[in-house]
Amino acid sequence: MADSKTAMSTPVIEVNNVVKHYGSVIALSGVSMKVSQGEVLCLLGDNGAGKSTLIKTLSGVVRPTSGDFLVEGKPVTFNSPRDALDAGIATVYQDLAMIPLMSITRNFFMGREPLKGIPPFRHIDFKHCHTVTHEEMRKIGIDIRDPNQAVGTLSGGERQCVAIARAVYFGAKVLILDEPTSALGVAQTSMVLKYIHQVQQKGLGVIFITHNVRHAYAVGSRFTVLNRGKTLGTCAKGEISIDELQNMMAGGKELQTLSDELGGTI
Amino acid sequence: MAQIEQQTTVAAKPDERIRQVGFLTHMMRRPELGAVAGLVLVVVFFFFAADPSMFSLSGLMTILAPASQLGILAIAASLLMIGGEFDLSIGSMVAFTGLIFGALLTNFGQPLWISIVFTLMLAAVMGAVNGQIVIRTRLPSFIVTLAFLFILRGLTLVGLKWATGGSTELRGIEDVVGDGLLRQVFSGVAFQPLFNWLAEHDLIEKFDNGVPKVAGVPVSVLWFVGITGAATWMLLRTRVGNWIFAAGGDPVAARNSGVPVDRVKTGLFALTACAAALVAIITVLDAGSTDARRGFQKEFEAIIAAVIGGSLLTGGYGSAIGAFFGAIIFGLVSIGLTYTQFDSDWFQVFLGSMLLLAVLFNNFIRRKVTGER
Prior knowledge:
heterodimer; A: alpha/beta; Rossmann fold; 6-stranded mixed β-sheet; 25% strand; B: mainly alpha; ABC transporter involved in vitamin B12 uptake, BtuC; two-stranded antiparallel sheet; 17 helices; 70% helix
């Protein structure tokens, strides 16, 4: 069903049967998933399901023990996060996206500073940087007075948005968002979710990792559920209800019983 | 009531998310603010407590000469601290590179330029080794460089005894260096003609025979100012500067963004060692000798100057200009006390208090900057 929309184009990222062992610990024992342009794939799973390891694999931090990893249909091997970035895969980590003591501009261009001038006097083109930062922030509705202000002064939601805007600006094809809403309040969460939707409209592929089913259901086009290092299944939005998704993620019917006891609050 | 409400909405209009940034807050964002305030305090104190001759030209030069030597180390130390690491071996590095430099000139009879180049290169390699050990073992740089503090100090003693046949002081460097342009770059005073001219026109103090009391500006002061400028430009304007802040601010986030954190840190360790070698070359040429106690405790003084200059011990924040002022404060206090009624034994008390104040102040500022509560 869901594939009818995306079947024509090759998925931007596709992994098949990825396995990752840390010594004797099996973190991933055969995970398969794919994401195409213009869709939000939600990766759901409880703690220890293997979400973090999967992200680390996709973003080049760790190398899988075995399995296929295809970017736009071609098999790839990443040796560092830089390789993944160059392939257009940008990862926004929950709390490691920005450096609080540095200015918004410096954070925005960190690792990709535009230079001008002749070699011994090459320096960062700060005028250009400030203009771009201001403009990009305005686009996502964060009106910063001074791009020189430290990122630490921004709220958690704003920081996530700045990190996403940075990835988009630098031409990411796929965005991996690692629990971007888990530490945020209601208003901030809706701000981030709105922006994720906006990014999807632009035609980027988004992998949205969360364990909050409501957040996932709000923006997701497809849902892949992980459990104990394996893919439990993938469903499109129309095929599954929010409650079924919750149960699938919790790995059984027990939660339903608990939910009934608590009056349907989970 | 309605009027008040209206006023608040109008005031909040430009941006409802961020409060108006006051001039004071804006100034507080500059890391060197504490050092400038400290400098003003210290100058005011000595202005009233010290003999006026302290603020004469010759008095100032007496303060600036040691301050500049410490300052060269302090600037390198502050860059390394911003990058998130420490180097406790710089004092011993001064002694060790001083020995290498002296031995190359005397025992091996090398010309000055070869001795200088070789000393700087050796320092860079040793600094890089320090850095690589820290990075590969993931041990705190504090402990790794503490080991080198003793290793290098010990090697200096052993080496000096070998080079001199049993003494802890290597003399006779003056005789083998000769006089040349290269030597003038690293020792003596600059702007002599200017000072002579000023003395002739009675603009500065002179002796009865017409020779100015201050012959010129010590070259170490020029190096100090030049290095401050270069370091500031590098930190604030270049890509490497951005990487230094990032590596110290949060190495994981920096690495995730594609910053070569390990290379930046190794480079900073090499740079710090080179600064130590530069100070060694300047002081050895000035004194014409080197001994085992060269650079003793300079590692602490350099770190203190960097902290007074606003560098955070946790990395990611600080400035080279701050370290510049930190070193001058250091020089003012250490030399200045001799111009006052106070016993100069008070120096260390003063220094410790200054350090404590600076750290408290820096923490306060950091919270202000990041909006932490």
